[in-house]
Amino acid sequence: MEKLHFLIQTLTKPQRKILKVHLKYLSVRKDANTQMMKLAEILTNCGPNPPTIEECSLLIYGKMNYSAMQKIKSRLFQRLKALLVFDVGMEKRNAETEDLDRYGVAIRWETTLFQILYNRTGNNPLLRSTMNEIIRLCKEYESYPTLIEILNYKKWMNYREGEKKMALVNAEVNYFKKCNDVLTKAKDYYLLTIVRSTFTTKEDLQEYQKFLRDAIAELNEEAAPLSSPLITYYIKHLEILYYEAGKNFITTREVCLELAELVKEKKSIYSKQRLAVVYGSISACDLRLGDYEQAIENAHLAQKYCIPNTENYYATMEYEFIARFYQRETDKCKAVCAQLVRSTKKEIGDFRYAKYLYFQANVFYLLGRYKEALSLLNFKMELSRDKLGWDISIRILRIQLMLELDRMDEASTQFDSLSKHANRSSTEEGLRPRDKLILRILRMLNHEGYSGTRIRHKITLNYNLLVHDKLYAWEPLSSEMIPFDNWLAERYNLHRNHTPAEVA
User: Fold this and answer.
1) Of 17, 71, 370, 408, most Cβ neighbours within 10 A?
2) Diameter over CA atoms, the chain
3) What is the DSSP letter of 381?
4) What is the SS3 string spanning 300-346?
């Protein structure tokens, strides 16, 4: 029942009304209280957890009737699929359906009609009109495979017009084949960057940048004689990744703005979800550049284009939360965080849900609610699977919280655990220079019982490395939400030097 339940849960209220009318119309008795309708109502009202086929059978038949349940389940599934396609293909505009989706379905409908007419009636005015409409839509929305298919039909339909006409159509076919080939290559390059970021734990930065640089140059050269906004769309995404990798966030933001304008202007690209992603990227750039007010504004823009309670929607809310957190807007970031935490694991996944609990722990820290923050961090989090990033930050924050609570012995025990974890060869090799320096500072403090009096000079030297040396600089959007150097300065009353310090 899982697939059928999932499909029913995606229906909007208007679609559910249409389904009810649809099922009643298909009933021989024109009865709304059919077994199929009963099953639809059960799966609509059961909430996030689908009932078993046995439970449904007992509610519908009062006994277990497996063969009958299989039939009505299969029929209802087919009716639902037909309803969704029909609803997307309707001319009306609605909040759930993007133009790209609706016209994508329209192209398939028209193509199906064309093939039926071609096989049944041969060349006639309706067939030619349908063909021309498909060609128009395919060119406008860059649906190249269907366009090439229909143009090949056009050659056969117009063979009486002679060789010159056939040559013109062949030239079109070859041009759009080239567009399709370059677009496929652009999509593959973009997908490859996602695959590498997902499955490659530590990729050489120079090699990655070279891959992106070569891909962009190759695609620009091949796309130059073509007029394809969709190819440009993917090239812009690769440029964004390239400048991000080089930490050139000013240029990254500029390319994002260019991409936003491109998405708004071109029908073959325009979709609210794409705009949401682009404005989310702009918000992330603003965060890295320290412009938190602008980051909030662009996060709100992204949310405007997002479908609520989707992965993109929660990602843009994260940017808003982080911007407010960095500005220490405790009340507002607490409200955003509460909204994030209210989302369910099923909606966002275990990792993201654990991240939101970690966000909440950091908010509690800012509010001085140290015990509540510590209690959240003491649960085994999905984030701890990331041994080099989130797990290190969670362990360090635990130590900071214990020190704020004057639980020195527990802080020392936590540091010993952190030190053993960091000293494992597999972990130590992947640690960021900043994390290594933070561990060195904590080791000195731990040795002194977390009193910085006798080692104040050494602590100050290392503190200034954190503050001034780019190698050890704090990174926005990292798992270190409260910069360690800020905490260190506040707790031990340290002051910044104007020039980078050197440690002997």
Assistant:
1) 370
2) 98
3) P
4) HHHHHHCCCCCHHHHHHHHHHHHHHHHCCCHHHHHHHHHHHHHCCHH
DSSP summary character for residue 453: S
In three-state secondary structure terms, 476 is coil
Assessment of whether the complete model's pTM goes beyond 0.70: yes
- pLDDT over threshold 50, residue 32: no
Query: 349: phi > 0 → left, psi -120 to 50 → alpha, else beta; which?
Result: left
List the structure tokens of 230. Answer: 């969709």
- Six token digits for residue 255: 């390319």
pLDDT number for residue 476: 94
How many Å apart are CA 318 and CA 346, to the nearest integer? Answer: 18
Scan for tokens 């704090």, then name that residue: 474
Q: What is the token pair recorded at 435?
A: 């994390």
Of 311, 302, 224, 293, nearest to 263 by C-alpha is 302
Find where tokens 């977390």 sit: 450
Element spanning 368, H or E? none
Per residue in 257-298, pLDDT tens?
999 999 999 999 999 999 999 999 999 999 999 999 999 999
Amino acid symbol at 284: A
Which helix H or strand E contains 13, and what residues bound it?
helix 13-26
Q: Do 278 and 256 touch, CB atoms closer than 8 A? A: yes
Give the Cα separation of 366 and 329 in Å (integer): 10
